[in-house]
Design goal:
It is a single chain. With about 180 residues, this protein is an alpha+beta fold. The protein has a single domain, classed as Aminopeptidase, CATH 3.40.630. The protein has a 5-stranded mixed sheet, sandwiched between helices. The protein is globular and about 45 Å long. The protein starts with 19 loop residues before the first strand and ends in a 12-residue tail after the last helix. The N terminus and C terminus are likely disordered. The chain binds coenzyme A. The site of coenzyme A has 20 residues, from strand 4, helix 3 and helix 4.
């Protein structure tokens, strides 16, 4: 599928291609995108997260580029055998409020639907609560649930420096 997007701002390059699956080569650009959209967390190493997504059959990390092949948006969709989830929903500031945010979410919805998922969900950090209005606008409802979390392994940020000496790279995820 090829789609063209006519930007409504004067100096923003148009989007020239359909989304494509991310590759390991996208890690620097994804890191920049996540930093400039506030999605970057030091404990979520991009090298780790991208490689983990790419080797997961139930995950789909998609990126959008402009006509100059600059990476301008991404979304990570995945399912766990029950629900679909989206993470890393980001559009570079220059391209925000031009319809691309809706496009990336509906693309993820379409992919999850094609996987057999009938209900999907996402998490919004409390410090980013303004985004709740965005997702409500796209048809999502807030649930009365508490998300609970536990570390069941050493965080990659603590693990990688030592593991790299053992030959672990962005494309090699150690078991367990
Ligand atoms: C969230 C994000 C991807 C939205 O991208 P965007 O390109 O600005 O979104 P769009 O222009 O496609 O907007 C889609 C619709 O949502 C609406 N919308 C956008 N931001 C909104 C907001 N903060 N509150 C309510 N509605 C909003 C738009 O008006 C538009 O409505 P329409 O399609 O009916 O005309 C972008 O703001 C972003 O990257 N934010 C930083 C990263 C982030 O916080 N991600 C979410 C983490 S939970």
């Amino acid at each position: 599928m090829l789609w063209f997007y006519q930007d409504t701002t004067m100096n923003v390059p148009a989007i020239a291609s359909a989304p494509r699956p991310a590759t390991l080569d996208d890690i620097p650009a994804l890191t920049r995108l996540w930093q400039e959209t506030g999605l970057y967390r030091p404990y979520n190493l991009p090298e780790w997260d991208v490689a983990f997504a790419l080797q997961s059959p139930n995950a789909n990390l998609l990126v959008w580029e402009d006509v100059n092949n600059a990476l301008i948006a991404c979304i990570l969709a995945g399912h766990d055998g029950h629900r679909g989830w989206i993470y890393y929903v980001g559009v570079t500031p220059d391209h925000q409020k031009t319809g691309l945010g809706r496009k990336i979410v509906t693309t993820a919805e379409d992919w999850l639907r094609s996987c057999g998922v009938w209900r999907m969900q996402l998490m919004v950090r409390s410090e980013n609560s303004a985004m709740q209005d965005y997702y409500r606008h796209l048809g999502y409802n807030a649930l009365d649930v508490t998300v609970m979390q536990k570390n069941i392994n050493v965080p990659p940020a603590d693990r990688l420096p030592a593991d790299q000496e053992d030959g672990v790279s962005a494309g090699s995820i150690p078991a367990g």
